[in-house]
Design brief:
Elements (H helix, E strand, L loop, with lengths): L2 E5 L4 H12 L3 E6 L12 E4 L5 H7 L6 E4 L7 H4 L5 H22 L4 E6 L29 H20 L3 E6 L2 E2 L12 H11 L5 E5 L5 E2 L2 E2 H12 L7 E3 L5 E2 H12 L4 E5 L13 H7 L7 H23 L1
Parallel strand pairs: 1-2, 1-4, 2-3, 4-5, 5-6, 6-11, 7-10, 8-13
Antiparallel strand pairs: 9-12
Helix pairs in contact: 4-5, 6-8, 6-10, 8-10
Length: 325
Amino acid sequence: MKQALVCGAGGFIGSHLVKRLKYEGFSVRGVDLKYPEFSKTVADEFVIGDLRDPIVCRNVTDRPFDEVYQLAADMGGAGYIFTGEHDSEVMHNSAMINLNMVDICRAMGVKKVFYSSSACIYPEYNQIDPDNPKCSEDSAYPAQPDSEYGWEKLFSERMYLSYYRNHGLQVRIARLHNIFGPEGSWNNGKEKAPAAFCRKVAETENGREIQMWGDGKQTRSFLYIDECLDGVRRLMDSDFLGPVNIGSEEMVSINQLAKMIMDIAGKKLRIKHIKGPLGVRGRNSDNRLIYEKIAWRPIHPLREGLEKTYGWIEKQVREARQVSK
């Protein structure tokens, strides 16, 4: 039985990854500051620990795991990443985790390490036109991410690759593009656009108004969690190091995203555009390289994932109202 360690196993992607690895027959140890919020972990062992502490990292990486998945990071949606109020914590916390984990994986002879990077590493100057963003892997340099979160991710990519070159550590790096789905943050200030609009639509009576940061013409692509995990697992089973995009090429404006969710809910709501943190003007996954190297691409449309996500968030909203009564 293969053994895997999932760092960040209490988070959205990490908790889903634990389930996926268990389904595939792995023995899984999870580690995080907290347990998953919305469902009980299925990990064989779950360690509550702070990976900024090198002693914790040594204790949880106490054997040459077949696979280590490093997803732990200080992160959130636009309201957390782009205000500038959390820059020092984001950079310090995530860099400390990665500095600790890459070195202990080398020391313990871990066979393969996955590092979860981000589309936020791409230069702001290539994402000004919302209709024609450039996010091919080779466009990352000259570097100019639009957030300190992106800068830390880019630094850590280079660090993991340096451990591959200097120490032979087998790394796999993916730049994830806006992953969404059930059991993610939806009301704590760290939620991303799909969850935020699912919540707003679920909470608002038909015919009323919801708020949106910006003019809604900014574009993004969003990838459902199950598709993301398919790409991650295929990358880990391949000989390709990356960095490589894992995302959807179905680009939509934020206005279109909100209207799609309204349609799923069967509601007609007005959108009030207000000032707020936005990030880049346009972003879309370029999947040419990942398809060439490992023949992966998403197979389900955005609406399909949004239907599942809205159903889950609408249930959370309904239950929260019942508790508050």
